Amino acid sequence: MKNLVALLFMISAFVISVFSSKCYSGFSRNSTTCNVSETECLGDRCMTASQYSYNNGIVYKSILKSCANDTMCGAKGSMLVENGKFRFFMNCCIGKLCNTDGYQLPPEDPAPNGLECPTAYCTGNLQECKKEKKMNCTGSMNQCFEFRGDVTDPGDTEGNFSVKGCISSDSCKFNFDSAIGVSEIKKKFVNCYTLHHDKGNFSE
Question: I want to staple 46 with a disulfide (CB 3.0 to 4.6 A). Which of 39, 96, 99, 100 is the partner?
Answer without folding.
Answer: 99
